[in-house]
Amino acid sequence: MPPLATLRAFDAAARHLNFRLAAEELNVTHGAVAQQVRALEASLGVALFEREPRGLALTPTGRAFHPQIRRAFALIAGAMAGIEPTQAHERRGVTVTVTPSFAARWLIPRLGSFSALAPDVEVRVLASEATERLGGPGLPDLAVRLSAPPFDRALEAQRLLADDLFPVCSPALAATLATPADLLGTTLLHDAHDAWPLWLELANARAPLTAGKRFSQTALALGAALDGQGIALAPFALVADDLAQHRLVAPFGTDIRLVSERAFYLLTPKLARTRPEVALFRSWLLDESKPRAEPGV
User: Fold this and answer.
1) Is the same domain home to 171 and 136?
2) HTH lysR-type domain location, by residue (predicted)?
3) Which of 15, 35, 49, 118 is deepest in the core (most CB within 10 A)?
4) Could you tell me if residue 228 is left (phi over 0), alpha (psi between -120 and 50 degrees) or otherwise beta?
């Protein structure tokens, strides 16, 4: 039987059809993946890939071989998932990785409802801007990422929430803003996405004369907006509760919005869904993200 490492390298390369992406998934070098694939081909005595100028293509043998390897890995993962904790004090758990702003502004305020639904499931929230590998031992079970298709074929991607941006500010500041032209004397609160120039162009408005403030995360810019320090851009998902409670106001409504190609996507390894707690948490996330009515102002 070929070494397991060669089969893992083949599986990743067959899914991505790219040695570099396979290497990133496996946390090894591009050369290591290529070497493992060559070793597997030598062991089997057949070519599994055709090396083309723009990437890889599976040979007929490779196409026939890959589904069987996927099923074998699925059987291994299922066996591992079926090993339940034997100690009474051990708890079922699910780990989700999300961006810090999504954690602070959307997920954490809603976690109480999941705890009420499943009090025996421990939720571990990993807030990080980094793209994490998912589904392996010691790795997060699922992720919410601000991204756009295409996604890794080993992941099930479900669009949760839009990322269309519109301005929000405190009620006191909103009282001084009748039209986008009034932004000329206002402080703009920028985040790492720096979308204000595009929104101003969309609204046919000039940039303010005053210096703005810049933050590394959207949640920080929104914190400054809540404090009345200026006006920020945000998607409805991250400000829905503040708008409903009138802590923030959309001074120009939500019709003038910067439509984004990206959205918040729920990413779940297809094998991870065999765990009941992961399936339950995923279903809860989908229910919580169902559309809510947006305010006009």
Assistant:
1) no
2) 2-59
3) 49
4) left
φ/ψ of residue 82, rounded to 5: -80, -5
pLDDT digits (tens, 9 = 90+) for 41-90: 999 999 999 988 777 999 999 999 999 998 888 787 767 666 644 443 34
> What is the number of residues in the chain?
297
> 53: exposed, middle or buried (C-beta count within 10 Å: 0-12, 13-18, 19+)?
exposed
Q: What is the pLDDT of residues 90-109, one digit of tens each?
A: 457 899 999 999 999 999 99
Q: Can you name the residues that pair with 51 across neighbouring β-strands? A: 56
- Provide the CA 117 distance to its chain's centre, in angstroms: 24
In this structure, are 158 and 171 located in the same domain? Answer: no
Cβ neighbours around 28 below 10 Å, total: 17
Peptide bond into 149 cis (omega under 30): no
Amino acid code (one letter) for 182: D
* Strand runs labelled E in the chain: 49-52, 55-58, 92-98, 121-127, 142-147, 155-162, 165-168, 188-190, 213-214, 231-235, 263-269
CATH of the domain at 32: 1.10.10.10
Q: Nearest 5°: phi and psi at 179?
A: -140, 165
Residue 131 belongs to what domain range?
92-163+262-288
Question: What are the distances in angstroms from CA 90 to CA 77, 87, 115, 121?
Answer: 21, 5, 17, 10
